[in-house]
Write a structure and sequence with these properties.
Length: 252
């Protein structure tokens, strides 16, 4: 399994959740992969590309089988990396080559003179790491409720906004993070992790997981933290082109 790669032209997206009961991103993801192939970019799906939690057996098998057919079609033309997230953690059993994908826990990318770290970011989610039993128990209950009222799936964003944006603002905490959409509605642990990775020599750090897209300078403006958000609303992706790194909406 190779995690250190040189890629002068690479596209990165995350959190498509193909197979989810509450998101229908497969066709859009395939169009994005076709775009990458047409413009001679390799790609990285940065975790939670497929959904194994908020799904049904029928939907999971139908959607992932269709996606893998398209991936096999494209894999002869471009390299497709896939970093493991928390909603697809079952894929850890297949690290290496699998169905046209190169499954990895993370990627260290060299592009021109720049070093870029790509990982899903769930390992920096303190609530997930400290109480996974409680987190997954709540998810099962929440999924049951959302089957009866699917729009309720997005109510978790209201809770995170109240907890991380308004409560922190009221308490005067982390004010330098409250003006950026990538950090104002999530735990500071993700920004801290990006800072730590940047201080270890990376020029850019790319996460997913939080479903909040954006860009923020780190390490004294010497590096940048990118998050590609999710495909539940406006999809975003990162373009790496000969060391230049940019966040774009999809479709551009």
């Amino acid at each position: 399994m190779i995690t250190d790669v040189r890629e002068n032209r690479l596209l990165v997206t995350s959190d498509t959740h193909v197979g989810s009961l509450f998101c229908d991103a497969r066709r859009g993801l395939v169009r994005w992969l076709d775009y990458a192939c047409a413009h001679k970019y390799n790609v990285c799906i940065n975790g939670d590309g497929i959904e194994v939690q908020y799904t049904s057996l029928t939907r999971f098998t139908t959607e992932t089988a269709a996606l893998l057919r398209d991936i096999r079609r494209l894999a002869s033309e471009i390299t497709i990396y896939y970093t493991i997230g928390n909603h697809d953690i079952i894929l850890e059993h297949y690290l290496g080559e699998w169905g046209g994908l190169r499954l990895v826990p993370y990627l260290n990318v060299s592009s021109a003179t720049k070093r870029i770290r790509i990982e899903h970011g769930h390992l920096y989610d303190t609530s997930l790491m400290t109480r996974p039993d409680l987190r997954y128990g709540l998810r099962r209950f929440f999924c049951f409720l959302c089957r009866m009222y699917p729009p309720g799936f997005h109510s978790y964003q209201m809770y995170e906004t109240l907890r991380y944006r308004y409560l922190r603002r009221l308490l005067g905490h982390d004010r330098h993070l409250l003006d950026s959409p990538v950090t104002r509605d999530v735990s500071p642990s993700f920004h801290e992790a990006a800072e730590d990775l940047a201080q270890r020599g990376f020029d850019a750090v790319i996460f997913g997981h939080t479903h909040r897209h954006g860009v923020l300078p780190v390490n004294g403006n010497r590096a940048r933290y990118f998050n590609t958000g999710s495909w539940f609303d406006q999809p975003h992706y990162v373009v790496i082109d000969n060391g230049e790194v940019e966040l774009r909406p999809w479709p551009s």
